[in-house]
Every structure is written in structure tokens, then in C-alpha cells.
Design a protein that fits this description.
Length: 491
């Protein structure tokens, strides 16, 4: 029944931002970490040449560590256009969002496959999109969602690869690729399953889990030329919120177009959404477009006061992105909605149980782009309401950090790429506070100057790509060619 129901569903071509595509209750879930492909492509590329890449299904184990041999259909897409016998397989994990054919049709990974005569497979992550081991997302049904299960999925897929073109590993070399959370998974696959995984390409992976991740906000501030004006308005806003004068608070919410948010903390949380998105997904403007960061900062100087400018910027943002604030920023909304295909809910569970990654306000005297009401309680508070009182709080991140090595991870044949301006970099192997890394024949570490989150994975674009990005992409290709062709590297 499960299979039949899934087979009739089709992939919908999405040209709009994720907010529109999937109006979620929890903004941090999708918008802040997800490697959101809608941000990466200008135009829909789902049906190239009018011919859709077929959706395929793999019988995956529900529980890799239990006694049951039950399976569920896991969705994947394949592109073998560039494949030549003996070439590698790039296993592209789309991470915490629905998979789509785009992953194998366009983007830098497809170019990498072309340059190395490889095959590209993108395997949907369990609990996202159509790949669900459970009938709904009730609290008890979340129990098969963990990093260990997700890694075991990829291992089992490699071992039983439903790809007639190729031989099994290690005769065929498998390279695991991913960005953001899936960038972690790529490196961890090489760590946990070295006999199955030849190499990994880990883009913008926040490999260290952390509860109080105030450094994200510091990185956002560093990137915005108007950060001092923003910080001043945030102090003003907090002053009004501290005052507890309901009329004044209501007026403030109204000025920002956020009067539908009853909770003070939800209002405070909503204010940071725009600038965080701007910095995390920043792309240089096309020739006759305006620079998104400059346009945002302009609001703070072209209004009567910076606060009025901030309010206008927020109202315009909600309007142009068609964001329903009550739906998007109400943190407790949807706590009891167990419908499948809510990436936000699934990712929230992963943060509540393993990663945290809570983006909190830096404490004074650090400059803060967000209100002090955006604290740990704002972020982690809803965890138990969503998934049950048994959840450990704070999130026991040490468990994950110890198991996979966090930013001290030590495994060979991984190409790590990060963006200089990516607010997640401070949890990566290239964080300024991580142990210093040196390139070797076996590992590469690159920070792309001025790049945002996962920028390297985008489809190359002659108009906006800059020299350092082009150089590093070329190094990635050359390194994989070298590793794949090196006769000294046993299969
Ligand atoms: C494979 O990738 C190429 C682009 O490199 C694209 O034109 C083609 O449509 C893709 N094929 C499939 C089956 O997705
Ligand atoms: C929030 O405010 C709206 C009116 O703006 C009201 O209808 C609703 O009941 C309130 N919700 C809560 C939880 O207080
Ligand atoms: C510049 O913008 C105009 C419309 O404002 C458009 O017609 C033109 O194609 C754009 N040029 C480029 C190079 O994007
Ligand atoms: C301020 O700048 C923004 C961004 O360029 C623009 O959209 C807005 O219309 C300007 N507002 C005023 C009052 O000039
Ligand atoms: C539950 O979430 C789904 C997916 O976001 C949504 O379509 C549905 O309307 C929600 N149900 C309720 C009762 O809110």
C-alpha cells in the first residue's frame, strides 16, 4: 500500500523560495541550515528536455540496529550520462529536505561526474520527502531518525546498489557528497565505512554540534556593513520588550508587520530571519541587479530612524516572500501535526536530539544582530512539546561530537570546502577555533574567500563566479581525478 500510494505522486517543479513551497511552522528548521536548492537555481530545471529523470525506489531497512528486517521505499535519482565503465559513483545526499531530480541534472557535482566519467545518484534522506520508514511523524515514530541510521542507509544502499551499470564496492569507487548537514554525513561515511566509501566531498559541514551557537549571529554581523545600526535598534527593541507595556509592544509588532505573533520570543525570533537568510545564501548580483546586502542596509539609512528602516525592511520582506508570519514564526504551531513530508518537523527532531545548533543572541558586550529574547529557551523550549518529555535537555551533543570527532575528525581522502562568510563555518573543520589543518596528499581543506553556505555546489555561472571560487572548483576536480587515477590507492 505504501508503495502504491507513493508511485502516483509526482515531483512538482518549484520555482519559488522554500517559504512558499512549504509554509512551515518552524522557520529555523528549513531556512537556516538546509541546503535549500531553491536558493541555488535561478530557474526550474526539473524537466530538462521535457523528459523527467525517473524517480526510483530502493527497499531500505527500517531499522539497521534492531531485529526486524522490515523495509521502506527510499527514493533516488540516477544520471549515468557521463558514466564510463570503471568510473566512480557520486552518492549525493540531499540532507534535510526532499530530494529532487535537480540534484543529478545540474550543479557542480554533475560537472565533477562529467570530468571523471562518473555516475551521480542522489538518495533521499530518511524522514524527508517521500522516504519514510513510518506512517506518520508522531513522537514515537521519530525513533528511527538518527545520524547512525542515515549513515547505515547509505552503506546498505552501496552494498546492494540497484544499479545494473556498476559492480559492487570496492571494485566501483563510491564518493559520498553533501552540503551542510549532509556535508557532515559525507565525511562521516568515509570515517564509519572506509571499506565501502573511497572518498568524500564535504561542503560547508558544521561537524561540531553545539547548544548555544551564538557565533552564527556574530558571523552575520561581520558580514553586514550596517551591523552597528542594527545592533542599536536591537537594543531599542529589547528595551521596549523589557518594559512590558503591552500597548507599546503591540505598536512595535505592528510596525514590523508581525502583530499576529503573540509571544514576545516569537516576535524577537522573526526579526532575524531576513538578515540570516541574506548572509547564509548570499550570491553576488547579476550584472544589472542590486546587491541584496546593500539593499537591506540601505533601509537603515534611508528612513527617519534606523528602527523605522528595520521595520520597513521586515514588512517588505514578508510581503515579497509572501510569508505568513503567524504560520512561519509561531514556534509551537504544528507540535501535534504528524503529517509526513514536513522537513521542518524532521529536522527539528534532529536538532532536538543530536545537533542543537541553536542560534542564540550573543551576550553583551558582543554586538548582537538579534534580540536577547532569542535565547536557548526560545530555541529548545518547543522540543519537548513536539516530541515528548523524555527528551534530554540540553541536547547531549557530546555524544555525537565524541563519536564522529567533531572538528577534530581524522580520516583520509576527504575534500572539505567551506565559505569564508558562511555563518556555519565556525562549527566546521575550518573554524578559527578548530585544530589547525594542513593539506596533505590525502586531505584537502579549502575556505572559499567571500563565499556563503555551500556555494561551491551551485551550478557554475560565468557571470557571477569569482576567480577564487573558479580556482577551488578546479582543484576539487583535479584532486578527485588524482585520487581516482592513483594506482597506489588500493580499491
Ligand atoms: C544528466 O546531466 C546532464 C547535464 O550534465 C543533463 O543534461 C541530463 O538531462 C541528465 N540526465 C538525467 C537522466 O538526469
Ligand atoms: C494570539 O492572538 C490572536 C489575535 O491576534 C488570538 O486570536 C489568538 O487566540 C492568540 N493566541 C494565543 C495562543 O494567545
Ligand atoms: C537587465 O535588465 C533588463 C530589464 O531591466 C533586461 O531586459 C536585461 O535582459 C537584463 N540584462 C542582463 C544581462 O541580465
Ligand atoms: C530604502 O531602500 C530600499 C532598498 O533599496 C528601497 O526598497 C526603499 O524603497 C527605500 N525607501 C525609501 C523611503 O527611500
Ligand atoms: C499539518 O501539516 C501539513 C504539512 O505542512 C499541512 O498541510 C496541514 O494543513 C497541517 N494540518 C493541520 C491540521 O494543521
Amino acid at each position: 500500500m505504501h508503495y502504491a500510494a507513493l508511485a502516483i505522486l509526482v515531483i512538482v517543479c518549484q520555482t519559488v523560495g522554500l517559504v512558499l513551497a512549504e509554509p512551515l511552522a518552524f522557520r529555523w528548521a528549513d531556512r537556516f541550515l538546509t541546503f535549500d536548492e531553491n536558493e541555488l537555481f535561478d530557474e526550474p530545471v526539473n524537466y530538462l528536455d521535457g523528459d523527467p529523470t525517473p524517480e526510483r525506489w530502493f527497499p531500505q531497512l527500517v531499522d539497521h540496529f534492531g531485529l526486524t528486517s522490515a523495509t521502506f521505499p527510499q527514493r533516488f535519482f540516477v544520471n549515468d550520462t557521463w558514466y564510463q565503465a570503471g568510473g566512480p559513483v557520486y552518492l549525493y545526499n540531499p540532507g534535510e529536505g526532499a530530494n529532487s531530480a535537480r540534484k543529478v541534472q545540474r550543479g557542480f557535482v554533475v560537472d565533477l561526474a562529467r570530468a571523471t566519467q562518473g555516475l551521480v545518484v542522489s538518495l533521499e534522506h530518511r524522514y524527508y520527502g517521500r522516504s519514510n520508514p513510518v506512517p506518520d511523524l508522531s513522537p514515537t515514530n521519530m525513533r528511527y531518525l538518527s545520524v547512525a541510521q542515515a549513515l547505515a542507509d547509505m552503506a546498505y544502499f552501496i552494498e546492494h546498489a540497484p544499479l545494473p551499470q556498476i559492480q559492487s564496492a570496492p571494485s566501483t569507487r563510491w564518493v559520498v557528497v553533501g552540503g551542510s548537514y549532509a556535508g557532515n554525513l559525507a565525511a562521516w561515511m568515509r570515517l564509519e565505512y572506509p571499506h565501502l566509501v573511497f572518498a568524500a566531498y564535504s561542503s560547508s559541514g558544521p561537524v561540531r554540534a553545539k547548544n548555544d551557537y551564538y557565533e552564527y549571529d556574530l558571523a552575520v554581523g561581520d558580514r553586514l556593513p550596517c551591523h552597528e545600526l542594527i545592533a542599536d535598534t536591537v537594543v531599542e527593541i529589547d528595551h521596549v520588550l523589557d518594559g512590558k507595556d503591552t500597548q507599546q509592544i503591540d505598536d512595535l509588532k505592528k510596525a514590523f508587520g508581525l502583530e499576529s505573533l503573540n509571544r514576545t520570543k516569537d516576535f524577537a525570533g522573526a526579526l532575524v530571519d531576513q538578515m540570516a537568510t541574506l548572509v547564509q545564501y548570499y550570491a553576488p548580483p547579476k550584472s544589472n541587479h542590486t546587491d541584496s546586502i546593500n539593499a537591506f542596509c540601505e533601509y537603515f539609512s534611508n528612513h527617519t530612524t534606523p528602527l523605522n528602516g528595520f521595520a520597513a525592511a521586515t514588512r517588505d520582506y514578508l510581503k515579497t516572500k509572501e510569508i505568513d508570519a503567524a504560520q512561519t514564526f509561531n514556534t509551537y504551531l504544528g507540535a501535534k501535526n504528524y503529517t509526513l513530508e514536513q522537513s521542518g518537523r524532521s529536522w527539528f527532531y534532529q536538532t532536538c536530539t543530536e545537533f542543537a545548533y541553536w542560534q542564540t543572541a550573543p551576550r553583551s558586550p558582543m554586538l548582537s544582530m538579534r534580540s536577547k529574547y532569542v535565547d536557548l529557551d526560545y530555541n529548545a523550549g518547543p522540543c519537548r512539546a513536539f516530541f515528548g518529555s523524555h527528551l534530554e535537555m540540553p541536547v547531549p551533543v557530546d555524544r555525537l561530537n565524541e563519536r564522529y570527532g567533531a572538528d577534530s575528525i581524522d580520516v583520509d581522502r576527504v575534500f572539505y570546502v567551506n565559505g569564508e562568510f558562511d555563518p556555519w563555518r565556525r562549527l566546521s573543520v575550518s573554524s578559527p577555533v578548530a585544530p589547525p589543518r594542513q593539506d596533505s596528499l590525502k586531505n584537502k581543506y579549502r575556505v572559499i574567500p567571500r563565499a556563503s553556505h555551500c556555494y561551491d555546489l551551485r551550478a557554475p555561472d560565468e557571470e557571477t563566479d569569482w576567480p577564487e571560487l573558479v580556482t577551488i572548483r578546479a582543484e576539487i576536480v583535479a584532486t578527485f581525478q588524482q585520487w581516482l587515477n592513483d594506482p597506489a590507492i588500493a580499491r
